[in-house]
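So, is this right?
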Amino acid sequence: MLDILSAIILGAVQGLSEFLPISSSGHLALIPHLLGVETGLAFDTVLHIGTLIAIFTFFWKDIINLIKGFILSIIDLSEGIDKFKEGLNTIPEKRFAWLIIIGTIPTGIIGILFKDAVETVLRGTIFIGFFLIVTGIILYYSERHSSGNITAKDMSFKKAAIVGICQGLAVLPGISRSGSTIASGLCLGLEREYAARYSFLLSVPAVIAAGVLQIKDIANIDASMTVLLAGFLSSVIFGYLAIKLLMKMIKGWSLDIFAYYCWIVGILTLVLSVII
């Protein structure tokens, strides 16, 4: 049974690990074991909605521009395909909106195809430990193969699809969503700050979809409204702080520190899985 303190801790873990490249799914599977509590997908959804609010709060200007760009591009399309293409090639907001859409498609397909298999087969701590180590390798590799300055105005839809595929792979517990998308963006030549911004905004449709699919389960959570609110507010606050921290770090800091963290936690998880 969840209590307020456990909910706050789990909300903080969700907020920090969702945006820092250290895997929220992996941590939300491990931390409840340490706290001796059970959460379930519905409570995880409440926490994910909290981090969604954090994204909207931090990137509200970008999100408004994306919505505006999408609407204007649809108007362009109603006037002809040439007008539509011209808008995509000349207006960054219009192009950015469709880059998010294109990136979301493979994420959704992967999620639908493999969600049940992951939840039933790959939820063990051994898998989490292994994939945390993989996340560390991805981050470490990306820092040594990132030398680009591509932004929304010249990012291709092919690159958006590749980043979307990498986001879809984060369905595996221990693979960081933000880590895989930022790392893939860097390897594809995206400018560092833009890679992080695209990663965060790309998560919005996925989190909304997950919340809609599981909203019916939220009413069945075996926890009081006070506990739910505590977890929700904690995920909002720590999620906002994590976004702010990473957006500052990405400009001049290396992601290696997160790679080392993932390796340490991953190895410890594997060791504990064997001896306990």
Notes: The mean pLDDT is 88. The first helix runs from residue 4 to 19. The radius of gyration is 19 Å.
